[in-house]
Predict the structure.
Amino acid sequence: MTDAPTRAQRFAALVAPAAQRAGYIGHGSNARLARDTGMSESSVSRMLKGQAIPELAVFPALAEKVGVRLLDLLAEMGIPPESLQPLSESGPSQVGSPSISPAEAAERLGLSDPVGREMLIATIERLKRLEEHQRDDQSEPGDERGGAAAQM
């Protein structure tokens, strides 16, 4: 009986071949990928072996350098594609101010890099879902579970 691949192994199955296609092959390839993405060489090695998943902060650089869409990396982390829609397409904002979409927020922040923009949109939607789940899951008054960031 074989075990199902871990999330880290599935992540490696997506990234490792893409890294090779992007020219990260041969002696020193892990060091170059580490330098190009801001990861440590040991983190790159563990990632490519399917032993670990890098920090989300390096996903935009990793996606760009290996030629994989950021959305595909996020989906491999378990963030469903339908959750990556801009807020303006998924309903009104829960905040009392006029609602804007994550794309509008990126524009106002001056983010022009498409990878960075996708990362912002994904992060906002993920936080929104976590907040909704937290509200739905509260079982008793006084049940302290922490904020959305604590549950990530």
